[in-house]
Amino acid sequence: MPTEKKVKAVEALYEVFAKTQIGVLTDYRGLKTSELNEMRRKLRDAKIDYKVVKNSLAEIAAAKAGLKHVAGMFKNPMAVAFGYGDPAQTMKAIADYVRASKITLNIKSGFLPDSLLTAQELEILAKLPSREVLLARVLGGMQSPIYGLVNVLAGPMRGLAQVLQGRINQLEAK
After folding, report:
1. Where are the domains of the chain?
2. Cα angle 154-157-158, degrees, rounded to a multiple of 5
3. Which residue blocks in the chain are alpha helix, DSSP H?
4. pLDDT tens column, 11-66
5. CA neighbor of 29 nearest in space, from 99, 76, 71
6. What is the dihedral of CA 30, 35, 37, 40, to 10 degrees?
7. Which DSSP category does 72 fall into?
8. Of the candidates 97, 94, 96, 104, which has an alpha carbon nearest to the alpha carbon of residue 31?
9. Which fold has domain 4-128?
10. What pTM was computed for the model?
């Protein structure tokens, strides 16, 4: 029979799991309480919640939120960084904080609403450029062939214009 406290904890975790865009599972052991509190405060500024979770309750909440692929990931003491915005920005904020504060935060794995991520994939995600930069690169890649085509098609007209201008200059010189 679950206690009222556990039911409330599962409900709170369910709400977090339901609205998260990325979750990063970390091993928080070895960090001082002051370091954890400072990290929570800094990550909260970036719209990231960092929670130490009880594994059994987290598994129940994840399954209830439709994240059945996440349920088996909770082994050993865990803390989860829940990001609600762009997953790449969330990972950048975590990586930047760890690098700036020089704490030892062991990132185990992560998850998106529809897939699991390894620690290496999370590292790659942290190094990705922002969404706006990626969109600009895609748009530039789409525009490049069009500019090339316009340039090739305008070549004969430009050549004709240069020949005519040369003839005009030649006739004016006489």
Report:
1. 4-128, 130-174
2. 80
3. 4-19, 33-45, 55-64, 87-101, 119-127, 131-173
4. 999 899 889 899 999 888 888 888 888 888 888 888 899 988 888 888 888 888 88
5. 76
6. -90
7. G
8. 104
9. Alpha-Beta Plaits (3.30.70)
10. 0.71
